[in-house]
Amino acid sequence: MEQSATKRIARNFSWLLAGNITSGLVTFFLVVYIARVLGAANYGLVQLAQAFLLYLVLIVDFGLSTYGTRKIAQDRRQAPRITLNIFALRLTLALIVFSLSLLVIYLVPLAPMLRSLFIATFLMVFYRALNTDWVFQGLEKMEYVGLFKLTFAIVSFGFIVLLVRQPADLVNVPLVQLMTGALISFFFVVFLFRKIVPFELAELSLRSWPAAFLTAIPLGVSTILLQVYYNFDTIMLGLMDRAAVVGLYNAAYRIFYLFAGVFSLWLATVLPVVCGKMAVSRQAAGKFIEKYLRLTLLFFIPVTVFVFLAAPVFIEVAFGQGYISAIPALRFLIWALIPLTISYSFSSLILIPAGLFNQFLISVGVGALTNVLLNLVLIPKFSLLGAALAAIVTQVAAGIVAFLFARRVVRLHFGQYLVKPVFISLVAGGAALLIDRAKLGQPQILNASIASAAFLLLAGGTLLYLEREFVFNYVKEIIRKS
Questions:
Q1: CA 124, CA 319: separation in Å to the nearest integer?
Q2: pLDDT score of 475
Q3: 201 part of a folded domain
Q4: CA–CA distance, 421 with 359 (Å, rounded to integer)
Q5: Residue 58 CB coordination number (10 Å)
């Protein structure tokens, strides 16, 4: 990677990771507080309203944020015009979506308190329409993305502690989030337009809206289909198995999602860089993506094996001994991380920057269809392990389709970059498994801790020995002043 790109990626990834970790911790304690104060029934109602809100937000955005990020990364001089028009378009969509949802709320017989809860929750589509993350991502200014998330989490926590004190205060939860989100979003929008991308009102062009919306439709549909990846297995387990099994699977999925989330932050950091390079030269973009894949696979393949070994530690520390039965599910599910990193690298880093939105939709659609069919077949026979297997095969299927389309854009020789991380993982993993079988520690969590620690030492040492020049050059690029 060139020096400037390397430094930008390292800086932006650090900001995103720090912002997500700190805001995630605050949000975790906030969720625990709300759940305890409201009680299970009222907390369930709040979560139900939030689940509906998620789909409203997806419709309001409908791929426009990804489309905008790509356009800004390709030509930053157009950032004011792109930002202004997408914000205006999303606010218009928010008004339409909220009006329709309001009509449904009043047509459906609901208790007054529940109706108020849904109205207050659905009002949040307006501040979500003003979310600035995609603009800062396109401009490669991720520090503001991390700052927004942290500020929102802290301010929301403070106001909810003050205003949500008893079960009857459940409507105050979305009202506080609405007030906090609106104020912080408004502040960031004003800052964005005054300091980063100043605009002139003449740049507002209603004529450009239909073209932008139609172009973004495949991205919007893809985003909705991606929810199938994350929700359908849980839904099917709930319908076909016991509630306890759903809890066990979601415990395993939470750990998996933690590491998949780190990858998504890494992907979000690299995306605008690739978009910019793709607009100049597909050959240059291809060379950059190869180096990105090399670094990504060096990290995530050994991490997958590490989580497999440390599964008892993750489950017991996070959820307690009551969730020990989730350990096999996590050990199965974590293998989806490898095809996920490869699949998204082809789809999000090649098809989207190249403007192949329809091909991206086909890739996601194949994955969604595979996920639905496999869950229907595997869950009745293998329960939560069947759901985990469906997740793995889903990523493989989507990745194959994405690769077939991506190779028409750039020729990637990524297979050679699988050899060393696989070798490192096999050697260190084999040694760690021998240690695990030796039962050096009891109970299971202690034994798993010893084996996973041994894996980290062996894998880390082997990686530095085999790839020391590549890793050290990358670190030098980051810390070099000039």
A1: 31
A2: 59
A3: yes
A4: 30
A5: 17
* Same structural domain, 410 and 451: yes
Residue with tokens 């839904």: 235
Does the structure show a pLDDT above 70 at 479? no
CB neighbours of residue 415 within 10 Å: 7
Tokens 């297997």, residue? 389
- Cα–Cα distances (Å) from 304 to 309, 327, 333, in that order, read 9, 14, 10
* One domain for residues 180 and 285: no
Q: Can you tell me which residue has the tokens 């409203």?
A: 56
C-alpha torsion angle, residues 10, 12, 17, 20 (rounded to 10): 180
Residue 457 tokens read as: 């030492």
CB-based contacts of 32, cutoff 8 Å, min separation 6? none
Specify the pTM.
Answer: 0.82
Instruction: Tell me the residue range of the domain where 395 lies.
Output: 219-482
Determine the pLDDT at residue 271: 86
Q: Quick one: tokens of 328?
A: 């096999």
Which 8-state DSSP code applies to residue 1? Answer: -
Gyration radius of the chain's alpha carbons: 23
pLDDT at 179: 92
Provide the 10 A C-beta neighbour count for residue 56: 20
